[in-house]
Amino acid sequence: MNVLEVANVSKSYGGIVALNGCSLNVAEGQIAGLIGPNGSGKTTLFNVMTGYEKVDGGTVTFAGRPITNAKPDTIFGMGVGRTFQLTRIFPRLTVIENMHVAVQRQGMLGLLSRWSSSGEHQRALELLDFVGISRLKSLPAGNLSYGQKKLLEFAFILIANPKVILLDEPAGGVNPAMINVLAGRIRELNRQGITFLVVEHNMEFVMNLCHHVTVMHRGTPIAAGRPAEVRQNPAVLEAYLGD
Ligand SMILES: Nc1ncnc2c1ncn2[C@@H]1O[C@H](COP(=O)(O)OP(=O)(O)O)[C@@H](O)[C@H]1O
Ligand SMILES: [Mg+2]
């Protein structure tokens, strides 16, 4: 079953075509990868899948329900979590305070009524521990390294127990040891049933982690398949060399 379906989606900014009749399915239970040269439309695709941009045409479906042009909070509340290429944490709040904001965001969506506040705190700490940054909990989030901020943002979205997680360049600027931690955590969550769609330029990370990879070029997929197949596809090599 496909948990996410993008069908024939187009999106332009003035004269710039970001998505050009783009179709892509994400199968439930997969760690799917999305690669492609800079400007090929990967982030725009995430934005239309999560309600941050409206489509010019085409449809987006989550678990069989239409979500085309739905609001970000609606889509988030349905179980689609995402991170941003440039993290969106609150720099003046401490790490644990950021997690409490995540809890409150859930509370506003009415999903957390079953949690006691001490339970929420415990869960926030567990998630910080899970991504390996609980020792930093009292630091202002703005003081974290770039990679640590990305891990905080990852913990932030896990608060909501998403069914699907979209990660936009999670390994960019993250040191190699932390990249390994991140890959391990993604695999662990995937074993627990979470589906992933990961945009990433680090080819080793993508090729080792993903079950299936789609290659974007000029706003539409040009190849898809198992990592080893995609890697050898001449059209893929040409797309990268040509841009
Ligand atoms: N908000 C925006 N305003 C204008 N142009 C944009 C905007 N977002 C993306 N684009 C353009 O759309 C194209 C696709 O961008 P993007 O989706 O960010 O690519 P990628 O994530 O693959 O690098 C690029 O040409 C980019 O400059
Ligand atoms: Mg991008």
Tags for this model:
243 residues, alpha/beta, Rossmann fold, four-stranded antiparallel beta sheet, 9 helices, binds adenosine-5'-diphosphate, binds magnesium ion
User: Which ligands are bound?
Assistant: adenosine-5'-diphosphate, magnesium ion
- Report the radius of gyration as a whole number of Å: 18 Å
Classify the fold: give the CATH topology of the largest domain: Rossmann fold
CATH superfamily of the largest domain: P-loop containing nucleotide triphosphate hydrolases
CATH architecture annotation of the largest domain = 3-Layer(aba) Sandwich
* Tally of individual domains: 2
Order of helical and strand elements: EEEHEEHEHHHEHEHEEHH
Strand % is 25-35%
Mean pLDDT: 92
The CATH class of the largest domain is identified as Alpha Beta
Strand order of the largest sheet: 6-7-8-3-9-10
Shape: globular
The helix count comes to 9
Textual characterization of the structure:
With about 240 residues, the protein is α/β, with parallel strands linked by helices. The protein has two domains: about 1-80 and about 160-243, Rossmann fold; about 90-160, no CATH class. The protein contains nine helices and ten strands. The strands form two sheets. A six-stranded mixed β-sheet has the order 6-7-8-3-9-10, with helices on both faces. A four-stranded antiparallel β-sheet has the order 2-1-4-5, covered by helices on one side. Helix 3 (about 95-110) crosses helix 4, helix 3 (about 95-110) runs parallel beside helix 5 (about 145-160) and helix 4 crosses helix 5 (about 145-160). The radius of gyration is 18 Å and the shape is globular. The two termini are about 35 Å apart. Bound molecules: adenosine-5'-diphosphate and magnesium ion. The site of magnesium ion has 3 residues, from helix 1. Magnesium ion (MG) binds near residues 42, 43 and 85.
